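Tutorial handout. Part one gives the primary structure; part two gives the three-dimensional structure as tokens.
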Amino acid sequence: MFGWEFPPHILGGLGTASYGLTKGMAMQDDMQITFVIPKTRGDEDQSFLRIIGMKNTPVVWKDVSWEHVDYRTGKQMDTQLYFDLRNHIYADFSYYATNDLGCIEFSGRYPSNLLEEINNYSIAAGVIARTVETDIIHSHDWLTYPAGIHAKTVTGKPLVIHVHATDFDRSRGNVNPRVYAIEKDGMDHADHIITVSNLTRNTVIEKYLQNPWKVTTVHNAVDPLDAEIETLPCKKGTKDKVITFLGRITMQKGPEYFVEAAARVLKKADNVRFVMAGSGDMMNRMIRLAAQRNISDRFHFTGFMKRKQVYEVLKSSDVYVMPSVSEPFGISPLEAMQCGVPAIISKQSGCAEILHKAIKTDYWDIEAMADAMYSIITYPSMYEYLRVGGKKEVDAITWQDAGLKVRKIYDNIL
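Part two.
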């Protein structure tokens, strides 16, 4: 498997989904998973899989017995050779940015030179493909599709790509042509495509021109709460109701609709506080919007939070809201419901396909969203129905079941 994130170092839902799926798949006795990420930190959980960091993978070797002249300086230099696994030839690699061990450096994040890192990742993938025995190659999200293609070319093994989102989701339709080309190239080369929802499956078929038989939906799930999270306190020391938005504060997530709905709720109730937990390029705009609506004194911006902090906020909340404009799946509502927090989600989200004990509104319908918020914090019977029913529903959605569906896809391909 090629991925970009793995807990505890995650920046979004991709790492959470990768962890949950691999852990669920590892419950199969004959399943051995090697998971590749750009950069390891050493504290990743490897109890159920093997993790390789691209930053530790040599892609060049130095041969001091060969000398050549640098045409730019006229000086003699040792030669670094890179084995081009795609074309099975040796090429001069003297000018490539590698360290003393012949490894490419990776940030392990989403840097400004992301496309360069994606290309570097695909180069190192060829080396790993030659050294790791495998039956299936599985690439998570567009960042690793080129790596999957390279590994397939080297080994001849079948490639499965896992579409966690498309650029149509991230950009509200203003698609980056370079990203679209990478996504489509991955889909065209894949032997099978897994999507996280039927919503995403339709996008893959219609926008990327893929045959329906080649695309299968495997919905995400949620990890059982561990002992540390289970014992976190469930309520805050205030009589105010707390309504929470949790996620990247970007246009895909619809944060402005949350702020506008909050302003409407506060016209009818003054015992409410709103939390916008997370970070993103729209955060400052949302701070200003809250000020413009004169609700800043009832609004809290937490910034980016780690896993334990996320659950502390969820367990202190009375309502969770996900007003995403286009959400391929959306794991955070499942996490909220798992904590016994009623959820309001947009109809434009993949998780709406499997959640029946959550309130669903159109992302743009701030009046309906505000009505739902107000109703949950005002009517105890409604709150209790969603709290109890939601937790029961989510507890039955497991990564082990998702892993079995993926295994069936593998078996069909093989």
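Part three, for discussion. Residues 60-92 form one domain. The longest helix spans residues 114-131.
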